[in-house]
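Dear Dr. H.,

I hope your travels went smoothly. While you were away I took the liberty of generating a structure for the chain from your last submission, since the lab meeting agenda had it listed for discussion. I wanted you to have the full record in hand beforehand rather than looking at slides cold. The sequence, exactly as received, is reproduced here:
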Amino acid sequence: MSDDTGAIHIFFQYLSPVVDKTSYEFLSPDDRQRLALIRHERRRRQFVAGRALLGMALADLFGSAARRWRLEARTGPLHLEGDQAPQISLTHSHDIVACAVAPVPVGLDVEYCRDRDIAALVAYVCSETERRAYGMLPAEDRKAWFYRLWTTKEATYKALGGNPFPDVWSAERRWLAHSESLGFHVRDTALQRASLELPEGFVGTIVIANARPIRLQMHELP
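The corresponding predicted structure, in token form, is as follows:
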């Protein structure tokens, strides 16, 4: 494993037009069953590429020890099962797949900032305080504001293991401080948030269930 065992490692990769055959080697029998149910070609490639990226990340960090862990996705966010398994989070959007590997509970979300009815989404997923903040922004800043908020909430949901969903999406929180790192609480859990440096057009946020500052180590794979 990397010498920096306290770091949160983030691997990301552009989605290839054709998923290499070797990528399928990382699929478990359960993964292959889930893949068979996915009809949309881009989503199929995202699924396979995400599993392959995670497999390569674990092999890079842990070597052969990673083989003893089993990927579980039937209940809550994706996680590893097995003795001394690290915490993981997997995300994909448009033509990027990314995963995080950490020694503490972690949530990662990346979104491509495509045009959509942002105002309708704000009305649906934001608290009253957040809706007021959105309404006070210049029109040109609203889309980026929303995607930072969205990725923070999604990453928090994952870091908390999928619960408590209502607390993540509707409670009054200080989600959007402009600092790169932000500490906050959901119920009794101390969390840390950081924005990711990603290619233009993408927004990414990582959240860890730990009160200590986040140390990120980025890995871009070809």
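Two observations you may find useful: Residues 1-222 form a domain with the Ribosomal Protein L22; Chain A fold (CATH 3.90.470.20). The chain has six helices and ten strands.

With kind regards,
E. W.
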